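Moderator note: this is an archived Q&A kept for reference. The question asked for a predicted structure of one protein chain; the sequence and the answer are reproduced below.
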Amino acid sequence: MDTEYIRPRLVLLTTPLGDADAVTAMQAALAGGDVASVILDPAGRDAVSFQNLAEKLVPIIQAAGAAAIVADDTQCAGRVQADGIHLTSGDPGELGEAMERFAPKLIVGASGFETRHDALEAGELRPDYLLFGRFGGDVDPNPHPKSIAMGEWWAEIVELPCIVLAGSDIESVVEAAATRAEFIALSAAVFAQPDAAGEMVARANALIDAWFESAAA
């Protein structure tokens, strides 16, 4: 077996998930198969609405054995006892401050770094991971080419884990896995149709398993 290949795990990103479907869709998604973590995206909600959503979802996520990570609202993360925070600004200064305040007690991850130089600068701060892809940017069936390129480059030269955002088609997890990123984020592919969330997570894990067995043989 080629030891350079790892079996990536799923990260779910809630961007398209509506409040009415949130609990049932999250329960179904987490019951569908292996999920390492869930990033809760405010996605335009005000602070009160987002906290209400997080209060409902964080216990469900944690009960399923996944990490609950709150994006861009550290106060909310503390109030709901989330496992981590995620910063989308692409600002190394903000990331550095978060590392000083919250690491290692909480998982600290970040996205929004558009160039290799910026990503490396962020990596020097030693967050738990970087995510390549923009929240809500998975509008096409395939992953964004820039996310794939950044993920391939990062996974080859940097030990710090990365997450690559897949496309809106569940089959795109295979292209994302081929970057050798440690994690693959799914958002629209799972939550755009909430009734199918569990089925999509199961399908994604099956596709990853098949890819890994072939790649590592």
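Archived answer notes: The two ends are 5 Å apart (CA to CA).
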